[in-house]
Specification:
Strand content: 15-25%
Shape: globular
Radius of gyration: 18 Å
CATH superfamily of the largest domain: NADH Oxidase
Low-confidence stretches: none
Number of domains: 2
Bound molecules: flavin mononucleotide
Mean pLDDT: 95
Helix content: 25-40%
Number of strands: 10
Oligomer: single chain
Strand order of the largest sheet: 1-3-6-4
CATH class of the largest domain: Alpha Beta
Order of helices and strands: HHEEEHEEHEHHEEHHEE
Length: about 250
């Protein structure tokens, strides 16, 4: 499998929900396993584990079956959900760029045996396999996303923010907001209200991790050096949002 151009994949990837159930060959699976070990973390101090599981380990809860699943387990520390979003999105793009279908899946869970196979907490699944539907979008108009002005008030960084805007999110909720300037971009997520939060509060921090990865990838694509820092600027213009991290661009 290739180490492909992930940046261009941002603008054609889509969630795949119909799979050819034929398992991938051993060689391909090993390359995917190897790639899982190369993912860049957002928080280096948070222990994380990725396992490739077969569908018999998954309680699918109405979701269609896939031949393979990446299961993510993590230490529960501040920032762990955003770290999962940031890391696993690298797999979403890698698999899609290599001609395989994949989709974030928060609804299914694991059978007890699989949950107990790790000392870390089970967080989320990502099925993958050969797609039984069109793999890629062919035009940006096929993405249902909020306009740039709704997700940022930064001027002069549209090329970078456009990549963040295209990120996938749970229920396509797009809970992110970016503020700051073209040299230092602060990422926030919209805090869910009490009722929504009861069921779905784990998703916004994951979603913003995904979007932050797209932002970093785009910045590097345009030749900028990047550094992610953590220091809430305490911006009062973003009430209702929780601060996550900032991207410094050189
Ligand atoms: C954290 C997260 C959880 C998700 N959970 C599910 C899920 O359980 N089932 C599903 O069909 N799609 C799920 N999705 C996929 C989203 O519905 C999808 O990304 C969004 O609608 C945007 O569509 P796109 O990925 O095709 O661009 C999830 C996405 C994210 C980021």
């Amino acid at each position: 499998m290739e180490k492909p151009d992930l940046y261009s994949t941002i603008f054609k990837r889509k969630s795949i929900r119909k799979y050819d159930l034929t398992p991938l060959d051993e060689n391909r699976l090993n390359k995917i396993k190897d790639h899982l070990q190369t993912l860049e973390p957002l928080h280096e101090d948070i222990e994380i584990e990725f396992k490739i599981l077969s569908p018999d380990m998954v309680k699918r809860r109405m979701m269609r079956k896939a031949p393979h699943y990446i299961a993510v387990f993590s230490d529960v520390k501040e920032g762990y959900l955003t770290n999962v979003g940031f890391m696993l999105q690298q797999m979403d793009l890698f698999l899609s760029a290599n001609g395989l279908g994949t989709c974030w899946q928060g609804i299914p869970t694991l059978k007890k045996e699989a949950i107990e196979s790790s000392s870390l907490e089970f967080v989320i699944l990502m099925p993958f396999g050969k797609a039984n539907e069109t793999l890629h979008r062919t035009s940006s108009s096929q993405f249902k996303r909020n306009p740039l002005k709704e997700i940022s008030d930064i001027e002069g960084a549209d090329d970078l923010l456009e990549a963040a805007r295209f990120a996938p999110s749970a229920g396509n909720g797009q809970p992110w907001f970016f503020t700051g300037d073209e040299h230092l971009i602060h990422a926030y997520y919209l805090k869910p209200n009490f009722v929504r939060g009861l069921l779905t509060k784990k998703y916004p921090p994951i979603d913003v991790g995904i979007s932050l990865y797209h932002l970093k990838l785009a910045s590097e694509h345009f030749g900028r050096e990047t550094e992610i820092i953590f220091g809430d600027p305490g911006n009062t213009d973003v009430n209702g949002y929780d601060y996550v991290a900032s991207l410094r661009l050189k």
